[in-house]
UniProtKB/TrEMBL annotation:
Keywords: DNA damage, DNA repair, Glycosidase, Hydrolase. This is G/U mismatch-specific DNA glycosylase. Residues 18-182 form the Uracil-DNA glycosylase-like domain. The gene is mug. Its EC number is 3.2.2.28. It is an enzyme of class 3 (hydrolase). GO terms for molecular function: hydrolase activity, acting on glycosyl bonds. InterPro entries: MUG/TDG, Uracil-DNA_glycosylase-like, Uracil-DNA_glycosylase-like_sf.
Length: 182
C-alpha cells in the first residue's frame, strides 16, 4: 500500500472521488464522504483500519476480500459505492448540516436515476442528518426512494468500536439476505 505524507493527504482535501455505479444494482452502498486517504488514492474506503471491505467479504457479498483498488469489481456482483457528501475531509464532523441535507437531496436524485434495489447508507448519524430522520436505527427503513428500499448499516470506520468485525459482518449479512430475496 502506498504511504502518503501528511502534506499529500492534506492536498487531497476537497477532492471528489468518482462513484462506482451502474443502473439497476442490487445494492448501492453509500458512505458519509471520502476521507483524505480515499481522496488521495481515488479508492473508496481506502483508509487502513476501515472495515468496509472485510465486512463485505465476511457477510458473503463478495467471494474474496477485495482491496480498495479493486472497487470496480463490485459492479460484477451488482454492487456499487457513492457518498452522501462528495467532498473529501479528514473527519466527517467537518461537514455542515447543510452539506448533509443537500447531499441527501442529491443522493435521492441519484438513486431515482440508477434504481438500485437497495440503498445502504453506512452510518446512522449521516443517514439521520441527510434525510432528517432523527429516529432512524441500524437496519431496514420505512423510507423508500421510488422502488428502492433503504437500509442503514453501522459505520465501518475502525473508530466505531461499538461494532466488532463480527457484528458488523452480521449486519451486512442481514442486508445481503434481504437483497437476495425477490
Amino acid at each position: 500500500m502506498t504511504r502518503f505524507t501528511q502534506e499529500e493527504l492534506e492536498a487531497a482535501r476537497d477532492r471528489l472521488v468518482p462513484d462506482v455505479v451502474a443502473d439497476g444494482l442490487r445494492v448501492l452502498f453509500c458512505g458519509i464522504n471520502p476521507g483524505l486517504m480515499t481522496a488521495a488514492t481515488g479508492h473508496h474506503f481506502a483508509r487502513p483500519g476501515n472495515r468496509f471491505w472485510p465486512a463485505l467479504h465476511r457477510s458473503g457479498f463478495t467471494p474474496r476480500l477485495l482491496l480498495p483498488s479493486e472497487q470496480r469489481e463490485l459492479l460484477s456482483y451488482g454492487l456499487g459505492i457513492t457518498n452522501v457528501v462528495a467532498r473529501a475531509t479528514a473527519r466527517a464532523d467537518e461537514l455542515s448540516a447543510e452539506e448533509y441535507r443537500e447531499g441527501g437531496r442529491l443522493l435521492a436524485l441519484k438513486v431515482a436515476r440508477l434504481r438500485p434495489r437497495w440503498l445502504a447508507v453506512v452510518g446512522v448519524t449521516a443517514y439521520r442528518a441527510a434525510f432528517d430522520d432523527r429516529k432512524a436505527r441500524v437496519g431496514p427503513q420505512e423510507r423508500t426512494i421510488g422502488d428502492t428500499r433503504v437500509w442503514v448499516l453501522p459505520n465501518p470506520s475502525g473508530l466505531n468500536a461499538h461494532w466488532t468485525p463480527t457484528t458488523l459482518a452480521e449486519e451486512f449479512g442481514r442486508l445481503r439476505e434481504a437483497a437476495t430475496e425477490r
